[in-house]
Write a structure and sequence with these properties.
Blueprint: E1 11-14, E2 18-26, E3 29-35, H1 45-52, H2 65-106
Antiparallel strand pairs: 1-2, 2-3
């Protein structure tokens, strides 16, 4: 078992398409937000076990679930945008430097 430490608002990513975020820590309870594709079932352990036994289980709907999902999506989008911007800036800087060097190399020597 992999054991990770996370603080509030920190996340882990599983298989590039599942994100788990620590939403809240209150005493001995930790609230987690799970962002996963719709085709990936996500259940609490006791619900999973009941389903495996063939029982019908109605999970309580968390009033904040949609807000958590939306917040996780927003956080992930923000992180991805930031990383992409950083990578693009780095690539553009590199290309500009390369073009400037190329222009300097091909410019005729100045008389002087």
């Amino acid at each position: 078992m992999l054991v990770l430490s996370r603080k509030k608002d920190e996340s882990i990513v599983i298989n590039n398409d599942i994100t788990i975020v620590v939403v809240e820590i209150r005493g001995d309870k930790v609230r987690l937000g799970v962002e996963a594709p719709k085709e990936v079932p996500v259940h609490r352990q006791e619900v999973f076990e009941a389903i495996a036994r063939g029982e019908t289980v109605a999970e309580p709907v968390d009033a904040d679930a949609d807000k958590v999902r939306s917040g996780v999506r927003s956080e992930v989008r923000s992180e991805v945008r930031s990383e992409v911007r950083s990578e693009v800036r780095s690539e553009v800087r590199s290309e500009v430097r390369s073009e400037v060097r190329s222009e300097d190399d091909s410019a005729p020597p100045s008389a002087g």
